Amino acid sequence: MKKLKVNLLKMLKTILLPVIVYLVLLIATGGRFGKPSSLLMVFRLSVIPIMIAYAIGMNMTIGMWDFSVGGIIYASAILGGTLSHKTGTGVWGMFIFIVGIAILFSTLNGILYKLMKIPSLVLTTGMLMVYEALPRVIGIKEVKISISDGVLAQMPWCYIILFVMFALFYVVYNKTSLGYNVKATGANQIIASNAGIDIEKVKFQSFLFGGVFAGLAAVLLLSNNTTIRPIASMGSIHLLFDAMMGVFIAFFLSSSCNFAVGIVIGTVSMQMLTSGLVAMGLDTNARSIASGLFLLILLIISSNQGSFAKMVRRKQLAKEANLKYTEG
């Protein structure tokens, strides 16, 4: 019974965040946001950021930053979509080519990180510019698919893909040696290394695993837009913002729910916040400030949870002491 109560309390804490965000935005917009149709749109818009969050989730758990994911998504979508068009292989060809190219690029990241031994932030920022420039260097100006070939971004296929990839991430992160090693490495690399974990191998596998999700994100992006052109000047990095904030929120919720679930909750909450701020009529700068403040508040609370607990405990002890003194 006690375990059931603890689990119910954790579940309540987990769903509290999106519920609060929803209620605040519902009131602030005077009901313009929060209708079933708008919530369904929020969930659909969250699918690609969730996929990207899974692509960077393990790397961020280890403490590595992978800014190249946006470039990988654009490059693999353009190159894979072009190959699919030229070979006439349709949806399945597009799926295989794009995911395969994304895994190839992520593998290259892992190899270069292992060989060059430079910070992941520096490496992936450089590779981001390489991946963005690659389609233009090859001479591809755009990739365009038919609406029928974009079926994977439509309901229910987008949700089916999301469910399958959620299950994959959940199993790998929680039930395999890779997941255990990632969590151990993220907690303390020195202790993990002393325990016999090959840190370099774990980081390489993390890059490789993230490539699968980056590939699926690229498939969904091309399926949704039907036309994608090469991007430059690190323009693809905008794809990472909602995903990164979703991962940060997942870290915040980690004491109440599983990391895989936390990523979904966090990313949906951020997408809900963005849609609500649009409904309020705020411009891009104001939305960025509001989103940043929201994340900052969560990080402050997360970083000081121990201090808050000690404060509450001290007040409780002081109250008990005063009560005993009064009775005495």
List descriptors:
mainly alpha; 13 helices; 328 residues; 80% helix
Q: What's the structural blueprint in terms of helices and strands?
A:
Layout: H1 2-28, H2 36-62, H3 69-87, H4 90-116, H5 120-138, E1 143-144, H6 157-175, H7 177-187, H8 189-194, H9 199-225, E2 227-228, H10 238-252, H11 259-279, H12 284-303, H13 305-327
Antiparallel strand pairs: 1-2
Distance between the termini: 37 Å
Largest sheet: 2 strands, antiparallel
Report the order of strands and helices.
Answer: HHHHHEHHHHEHHHH
Globally, the shape reads globular
Class by alpha and beta content? mainly alpha
Q: Give start-end ranges of low-pLDDT stretches.
A: none
Number of separate helices? 13
Strand element count: 2
The average pLDDT is 83
Q: How much helix is in the residues?
A: over 70%
Beta-strand residue fraction? under 5%
